[in-house]
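Late entry, pyridoxal-5'-phosphate complex.
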Amino acid sequence: MAPLENSHPATQALHADDRLNLVTDVAPPIHLSTTFRYSHDPNELVPSEDPVAEFDGTNYVYAREFAPNATRFEAILSTLLKGNAVAYATGLAALYAALTLLNPRRVSVGEGYHGSHEVISVVSRLSGLEKLPLDCPAESLNAGDVILLETPINPLGTAFNIAAYAEKAHSRGAYLIVDSTFAPPGLQDPFLWGADLVMHSGSKYFGGHSDLLCGVLATKRDDWTKQLFEDRVALGNVLGNLEGWLGTRSLRTMEVRVQRASENSARLISWLHNGLNASMPAAGSEEATIQAVLQKIYHASLQFEPWLKLQMPNGFGPVFAIILTSEDFARALPSKLHLFQHATSLGGVESLIEWRAMSDSKVDRKLLRISVGLENWEDLKNDLLQAFVALAGAR
Ligand SMILES: *Cc1c(COP(=O)(O)O)cnc(C)c1O
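Prediction complete; structure with ligand written out below:
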C-alpha cells in the first residue's frame, strides 16, 4: 500500500486497483455475472445482516450491491479524487443520489447544465425542495441546505471560486456540492477548497471515448459513503458491468488525455483570442476572417483572476464556448468543419462542436460549444480557419 500512497496520479491510475486483481491477467477481465456463488462449506455460511459493511472488495453476492468491474473503477477513482468514490449509471443519477443523501430544504444553483435542473425539479416534486439562485444572500440558506456549484460551467467553460462558495455554505451550516465534470482530477481538486461532495458526469472525461454513461460521487465522510452505498443498493442506479470495465480501461489514460486536450484547447483559444483582438487587421487576413465570424470567446483561461490559477494550476480544461456574429453563422459553422463533429456531449478523444441551441433551449442562439479532443491542434486550427473563411466569404 505504502508505495502507492506516495505515487503520482498517473501511477495510481494504473495501480490503485492492484489489490482487486483476482486473476493473473494483466488486462482486467470483463466480469458480466450478476450473481456469485456462496461458499460450498456450510460452516462458512454467514447470513447477511449489513451487505455494505460486510463487503471487503472480494465477497460478491449480487451485482446490484457490488460488482467486480465497478469496484475496480471506484478503487482507482477513490485514489484520484481523494475521497471515497461511488459510481452510478449516469451523472444525473449521481446528482439525484447526492440530493437524496442530503435532502436539503433549499438548493442554491446557477444556470449550468440544464439536466441538473431537471433532477432538482423531480426532487422538488417529492420533497418541496426550493431552488435559489447561486448569488442568493448567505442568510437565505439554513443548516442542511445545499449550494450546487458547477465549475467550470457548462456550456461556457468559465470558472467559479470554490473556496468562496464553500465559505458561504459553511457559514450557514449548509453543504457544498461541486459538479467538477469539466475539470477532472489533474485539473482541479474541489476538496482542497472545501467541497463536501464532489460530483462528476463520468460520461465525459472518465470514459473519455464517447462510449459509456456513468456518474460518480466522492466524499471524505465514511458515514456518507455508507449511506450512499445503501441508497444505491435500494434504488438500483448502479453502473453496468460493461460500463465498469470500460471505465477502468479509460481511467488508465485519463491524465495524458486530459492534459493533451487541455493544451490543445489553450492553443486554439489563444489563437482565436489574438485574432479577435488584433487591431485594424488587413482585409482578407486571418485576423480579419476571425473578426468577421467570431464575436466572443468564453473560457476560464481568459478570466485572469488570482484565485483561479490556484484552483486550476495545470490548465483550464478542454471545453470552451464561442459566440458568433450571427445566428445563421452559428447554425452553419458545424457543417463547414471536417474534423470537429457536430454532436452534443464532451470529454471524448474526438473533437466535437455543438450549436448549443440544439440541446439547451435557454442558451444564446449564437453560441457554439467546443470540446477539444486529441487531434493535432494545428489541424484543428486549420479546420476552424477554413470554415470561418467559407462563412465569411459566403456573406
Ligand atoms: C453531462 C453533464 C452532466 C450529466 O451527466 P450524464 O452522465 O449525461 O447524466 C452533469 N453535469 C455536467 C456539468 C455535465 O456536463
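The pocket of pyridoxal-5'-phosphate is lined by residues 90-92, 113, 115-116, 150, 154, 179, 181, 201, 203-204, 213, 215 (CB under 6 Å). Will revisit in the morning.
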